[in-house]
């Protein structure tokens, strides 16, 4: 299981998109709930940027999941 530890975690863009879509949220809706920009959501889903731990926690809270559910597994990286 992936954890948020010493190594910078990588958000799994596919998981993030799937969780967002399962809740019928647009990029803007999720961004508003998590207090981040819509561009951040787009970039994380496309895996163009790395997320800060704080951002992962905000997204997890907005999606009502545990932070580790948004992080790529070590063997997925």
SSE blueprint and pairings:
Elements: H1 13-22, H2 27-34, H3 38-45, H4 53-63
Helix pairs in contact: 2-3, 2-4
Description of the structure:
This protein is an all-alpha fold. Helices cover 48% and strands 0% of the residues. The chain contains four helices and no strands. It has helices at 13-22, 27-34, 38-45, 53-63. Helix 2 crosses helix 3 and helix 2 (27-34) crosses helix 4. The chain is globular and about 30 Å long. The mean pLDDT is 89.
The proportion of residues forming helix, as a percent range, comes to 40-55%
Beta-strand portion reads: under 5%
- Distance between the first and last residues' Cα: 13 Å
> Which structural class do the helices and strands define?
mainly alpha
Low-confidence stretches: none
What would you report as the Rg, rounded to the nearest angstrom? 11 Å
Number of strands: 0
Assign an overall shape: globular
- The secondary-structure element order is HHHH
Q: Please state the average pLDDT score.
A: 89
> How many helices does DSSP assign?
4
Major sheet details: none
